[in-house]
Amino acid sequence: MPTPDFIVQLRSKIGHDPLWLPGVTGVVFDSAADPQRVLLVQRADNRRWALVTGILEPGEEPAAGLLREIEEETGVRAELGALFDVDCTGPMTFPNGDVCSFLNITFKAVGVSGEAAVGDDESLAVAWHGLGDLPETLTDRHRRLIEAARAHSGDGAAYSTPGTDH
């Protein structure tokens, strides 16, 4: 995955020391075509299937950042629904030794136009997957987020309870 320029600049000053980064995740359901399908990307760095995720740029609003990430990575234009989950992951140590923890902000979304296709070098593949036929390499965390998005019917936010398994 390409590292955002602002992180490269920070790393030049702090080395591999821990960073706290804001991340966004989208559970993007197919629109009228088949709302029982979810948009997934196959990551280039570990070959696992995943929800669309990204790191916010400094000062970027979470909703705008997620819409940008969805379109850049998949070619799909989406409409955001409710913010339904906020959680923390990490610390994670990456192969180069960098240590990061993430504050993840997750939105439910619906794809409204565009064809699902690889949009950058972060992904090997992009595809709609039926909810009953999710790839084996999808993490338990992303499976839980898909189920939580399906169950969440309100317009308001539902936040994760601190200390729960994420």
Q: The biggest beta sheet, please?
A: 4 strands, mixed
| Form type | globular
Order of helices and strands: HEEEEHEEEH
Mean pLDDT: 89
Radius of gyration: 15 Å
Count helical runs. Answer: 3
β-sheet strand percentage: 35-45%
Q: Low-confidence segments, ≥5 residues, pLDDT <50?
A: 157-166
Structural class: alpha+beta
How many beta-strand segments? 7
Strand order of the largest sheet: 4-1-6-5
> Into which percent range does the helicity of residues fall?
10-25%
Distance between the termini: 22 Å
What does the model show?
The strands form two sheets. Strands 4-1-6-5 form a four-stranded mixed sheet. Strands 3-2-7 form a three-stranded antiparallel sheet, with no helix packed on it. It is globular, with a radius of gyration of 15 Å. The chain has 166 residues and is α+β, with helices and mostly antiparallel strands. The protein has three helices and seven strands; from the N terminus they run αββββαβββα.
Lay out the secondary structure.
Blueprint: H1 5-14, E1 19-29, E2 37-43, E3 49-50, E4 52-55, H2 62-74, E5 77-93, E6 99-113, E7 123-130, H3 140-151
Parallel strand pairs: 1-6
Antiparallel strand pairs: 1-4, 2-3, 2-7, 5-6
Summarize the structure.
With 166 residues, the protein is α+β, with helices and mostly antiparallel strands.
